[in-house]
Amino acid sequence: MNHIIFGKVTAGYDVVQKIENAPADAQDKPVTPQKIIKAYLK
């Protein structure tokens, strides 16, 4: 599944940074899957 998501982080930016800094392999794919469990639309 490849989906591009556009949005604005209004809270929890520390979580975004953790996802961004997750270890990646030589192809720049995360070593462990990164998932967003909950998201809210405003």
TrEMBL record:
<dbReference type="GO" id="GO:0003755">
    <property type="term" value="F:peptidyl-prolyl cis-trans isomerase activity"/>
</dbReference>
<feature type="domain" description="PPIase cyclophilin-type">
    <location>
        <begin position="2"/>
        <end position="39"/>
    </location>
</feature>
<protein>
    <recommendedName>
        <fullName>PPIase cyclophilin-type domain-containing protein</fullName>
    </recommendedName>
</protein>
<dbReference type="Pfam" id="PF00160">
    <property type="entry name" value="Pro_isomerase"/>
</dbReference>
<dbReference type="InterPro" id="IPR002130">
    <property type="entry name" value="Cyclophilin-type_PPIase_dom"/>
</dbReference>
<dbReference type="InterPro" id="IPR029000">
    <property type="entry name" value="Cyclophilin-like_dom_sf"/>
</dbReference>
